[in-house]
Amino acid sequence: MKTLKLDSEVMSIIEKKIQMIKTKDEAIYLVGPVRLPVRLDSKTHIFHWYSWLKLNEIIDFGELINRLPSLNLAEFQQSSVLVYGDFEHSEHALVRLHSICHTGDIFGSERCDCGFQLKQSFQMIVEHGSGAIFYLANHEGRGIGLFSKTLAYVLQENGYDTVDANLSLGFQDDERKYDEAIQVLKALRTKPVSLITNNPNKLMALRDSGMNVIGRTPLWGGVSKHNEKYLKTKIERSGHLKEGGSL
Fold it and tell me: Active-site positions?
């Protein structure tokens, strides 16, 4: 096993930016904040970035850092969160639980509306003054992974909708879980939040966790001829909420 020998100065810097969130015999290690300038239209806004790693054991920070070279973290993705404004203390903050979408967020694909939703969430939070975007790395393809999502796309090109494609590959319609993100959210903020979403499952997950959700902001748009069926399936088969901001 490769290890990294840290001097005291490096460790003292890291310890100021890392915290542990314990969950039974597991732990979530949250690192941040790091200043991250984000360009929206013609103006740069400063967000504060956090990333987290979940391990199936509890170890101290020094051991965690020493193990990093042998964990091969580049082989799988870690989630992160961008916070804006006084997220901890502001009376009203917006939250977006955004599932990673390699094709939509990075490539700008119009097969879905994910890229539009991500960019619009940034803008909404800046205009509001306080909020956070959770970028959930294990949610690709509604939690089935990038390779499986590619297979689902092949089925969709042969007449399957999003739901039937996932089911035909042996998955549930939606395999996503929000436990880790909610634990991190609670570590960053205890005051009420409003959720940017059309997905009732996200609302339910937050409410079931005891988080005080005081509102919902719908996020529809980015419609094209390439994703009309996809968006229609979200409403008709996955129960997404099209109108209004009520819970």
Answer: 174, 176
pLDDT tens sequence across 20-41:
999 878 999 999 998 878 888 8
Separation of alpha carbons 42 and 155, rounded Å: 40
Count of C-beta atoms within a 10 Å radius of residue 133:
23
Location of structure tokens 């840290």: 6
Looking up residue 172, the CATH number of its domain turns out to be 3.40.50.10990
- Whether 243 maps to a domain, the answer reads no
Q: What is the pLDDT of residues 144-198, one digit of tens each?
A: 888 888 888 888 888 888 888 888 888 888 899 999 999 999 999 999 999 999 8
Bridge partners of 195, per DSSP, are 95, 216
**SS (HEC) of 22-51:** EECCEEEEEEEEEEEEEEECCEEEEEEEEE
Q: How far apart are CA 247 and CA 244, in angstroms?
A: 9
Closest CA to 80 of 132, 15, 140: 132
Q: Total structural domains in the chain?
A: 1
Q: Give the structural domain span for 129.
A: 8-236
